[in-house]
User: What shape does this take?
Amino acid sequence: MDAGWLSQGFQPPTQTITMDDSVTKPSPKPLPTQLSPTMRGLRTDEQLAEFLSSSKPGTAVVEFGTSWCHKCHEMFPQFYKLSKQYDQHAYAVAQVETMKATVSSIKYTPTFGIFRNGKRVDEVVGKEPQKLADRLWLHSE
Assistant: This one.
């Protein structure tokens, strides 16, 4: 389970100057990361929209967090475990500091949005693993 993309900074440099004064360009941002067979990593609003539309007509669960959020990192192993337990849902981890449209609806990280047919039907705010497990159980078919 490689979640290294979670710790990447908000504003990547446009160039890097090395010790010998040579200039290098950073590699392009990665495509959505497949964290597991049922979990993806999302970095843009377009990737989130595509994920939600591809998860129709089922249920999608998205953890909205940031690379600097300590509670998001603490909650990730439990979120990953729940994604294996309730594997009928589609799961994603969205890095909101790189999502301009999404960030306006997120007031606290982590926020777990539960979507059905692309519409938000429920949410769990904060580091509440038991509450999230209960909500996933409620939204299971």
Summary: The helical segments are 45-54, 70-85, 129-138. The mean pLDDT is 83. DSSP finds three helices and eight strands in the chain. The two ends are 27 Å apart (CA to CA).
